[in-house]
Amino acid sequence: EKAALPADDPAYRKYAGEFRPGVRVLHKTFDEGTIVRVDGDRATVDFTRTGIKVILLSIAYTQKILRIAD
What we know:
Blueprint: H1 10-17, E1 24-27, E2 31-39, E3 42-47, E4 51-56, H2 57-63, E5 66-68
Antiparallel strand pairs: 1-2, 1-5, 2-3, 3-4
């Protein structure tokens, strides 16, 4: 049986809604970056040290690896 998608979770929807172009973020592995684009569950982030990466917000949410920078 498949687990419920995070999109069904109101807390996930609130989390994902915070990620918009221009927002500074911190990733557990890639460090600091700026969101360039959000398309559904995919956030394209330009990380200062590692360049552009596409992050799946549902995985970032469940693994707690991406947050808004202070």
